[in-house]
Design brief:
globular; about 170 residues; six-stranded mixed sheet; alpha/beta
Length: about 170
């Protein structure tokens, strides 16, 4: 609730992503991972991707809201999973027993979110990992992950980001 409130998305249908330390965790919170999907995940993770998968009953209901922000009608049909190759995030995950519920923070003057102590949301988050500039990649902090929906017959590109649009599998 806090993450959605900070982002101004209190009543949205859009779920947040689950940051998973390994494929076993992804398997725990999703179902229907066939051989093709497993190969896609194995070849592209860890990496700059978010994969949308069918959500399992293991997924906490509090992660999803209906279109009116009501907790009475949870939607748990899909789940966005990420497994970044960032060493700081990997270290944090090694210290935890559960995956992290995450969201990117919009950067730039137009978003109203700056990584400084005067920002309104600064004291409302548990921690921030500032990615900075990729080594050799030249991407800015605001570049996001490439998102693929793997719930259909073929992978569907939802958003182009830091990950290559040609998935390896």
């Amino acid at each position: 609730e806090r993450i959605l409130r900070i982002k101004g998305l209190e009543k949205c249908k859009k779920p947040l992503s689950l940051l998973c330390p390994d494929l076993a965790t992804i398997d725990r919170f999703s179902y229907g991972i066939d051989r093709t999907v497993f190969k896609i995940l194995k070849k592209n993770l860890p990496g700059p991707y978010t994969f949308i998968l069918p959500a399992s009953s293991e997924l906490p209901k509090m992660m999803f809201f209906d279109g009116k922000g009501s907790k009475k009608n949870w939607k748990r049909e899909t789940l966005g999973v990420r497994m970044p190759n960032d060493p700081v995030i990997q270290y944090v995950q090694e210290q935890l027993d559960e995956p992290l519920l995450v969201s990117s923070v919009p950067a730039g003057e137009e978003s109203g979110c700056q990584l400084d102590e005067t920002a309104a949301w600064w004291n409302q988050v548990d921690f921030i990992v500032e990615r900075g500039q990729d080594r050799g990649g030249g991407h800015s902090k605001s570049d996001g992950s490439t998102i693929y929906d793997l719930t259909g017959v073929e992978p569907l590109l939802v958003r182009e980001g830091l990950g290559a649009v040609d998935l390896a599998y």
